[in-house]
Amino acid sequence: MTEPPSTPRHRYLSRDERIAARALRQAGHTYTFIANQLSCTERQVAYAITRDCVTPKKRSGRPPRLSDAQVDQLEAFIRSSNSNRQLSYLQLAQGPFQHWNVGEYTIRSALRRRGYALRGHKLISTGDHGSGGGSSGATKHG
Known about the structure:
It comes from Paraphaeosphaeria sporulosa. This is Transposase IS30-like HTH domain-containing protein. Residues 123-142 are annotated as: Disordered. InterPro entries: Homeodomain-like_sf (IPR009057). By secondary structure, the chain is mainly alpha-helical. Among the domains are: 15-50; 68-125. It is built from seven helices and two strands; from the N terminus they run H-H-H-H-H-H-H-E-E. The chain has helices at 15-26, 31-38, 42-50, 68-80, 82-85, 89-94, 104-113, and strands at residues 116-119, 122-125. Strands 1-2 form a two-stranded antiparallel ribbon. A hairpin with a 2-residue loop joins strand 1 and strand 2. Helix 1 runs antiparallel to helix 2 (31-38) and helix 2 (31-38) crosses helix 3. It starts with 14 loop residues before the first helix and ends in a 17-residue tail after the last strand.
């Protein structure tokens, strides 16, 4: 069994938490007190207080290849019939959605973000398995 890292990753402070940290500091509280109140580290408090702007930096990362409208269309296609749920990611990429010029991994990651995964040879919502009864396969539970 692997051990957790010696320095656990911390979540980023939100804009409201940064504003609260500044307000508590102006009220005369210590970094330790503020960190305990906001459930964060003293270093995060110090960073939030010393920055000129309270708005967090935009997080880097690759933008998704498919728009929300395209993923909605993909999801509607999968849910429309049982035979569509039987298609693999590759068959979806090379068949009905070939005009999007995306691969199977793009289709897979878009559907996984929506909560779908392949179980056996059928695409289902990950919140659907284990529910018992007659499920329709690709139904979403929100």
